[in-house]
Amino acid sequence: MPLFHHANRERNDDTRRVYALFEIAHTTVDFMAALAFIVGSVLFFYKSLQEAGTWLFLVGSILFAVKPSLRLARELKLYAMGKEENLEERFEE
User: Fold this and answer.
1) What's the DSSP call for residue 45?
2) How many CB atoms lie within 10 A of CB 23?
3) Of 5, 17, 22, nearest to 69 (Cα)?
4) Cα separation of 4 and 39, whole Å?
5) Residues 36, 28: Cα–Cα separation, whole Å
6) Where are the domains of the chain?
7) Are residues 31 and 61 in contact, defined by beta-carbon separation less than 8 angstroms?
8) How far is 76 from 70, CA to CA, in rounded Å?
9) Cβ atoms of 81 and 7 closer than 8 Å
10) pTM for the full model?
11) How many CB atoms lie within 10 A of CB 75?
């Protein structure tokens, strides 16, 4: 089954659990990135805190870069789990 195919996550209880865990991680990173940008934006209103705001913008940007990385890691994990099932089926025959 190809990457990013919906059926990969619905294959069994293990794939559903892996999918759910990655979705929780993705959502957590999303909230952290948004929070970093919001706080960074507020800090930019104060001259003395602009450097801290700049750092939070960098952290938020890095977190936004983590999101597609999590998605790819999830899909590779689900894909590999399918390959393991195929191996089991071949040995059972």
Assistant:
1) T
2) 14
3) 22
4) 34
5) 12
6) 6-92
7) no
8) 10
9) no
10) 0.77
11) 18
Which tokens belong to 38? Answer: 């919001």
Question: pLDDT digit string (tens) for 7-26?
Answer: 878 888 888 999 999 999 99
- The Cα 4–Cα 34 span in angstroms is 25
Tokens (6 digits) for 2? 């190809």
Helices (H), the chain: 6-9, 13-43, 50-92
Whose CA is closest to 36, among 14, 16, 54? 54
Contact 14, 55 (CB under 8 A): no
Residue 42 tokens, joined = 């507020």
Q: How many CB atoms lie within 10 A of CB 70?
A: 17
Which residue ranges in the chain fall short of pLDDT 50?
none
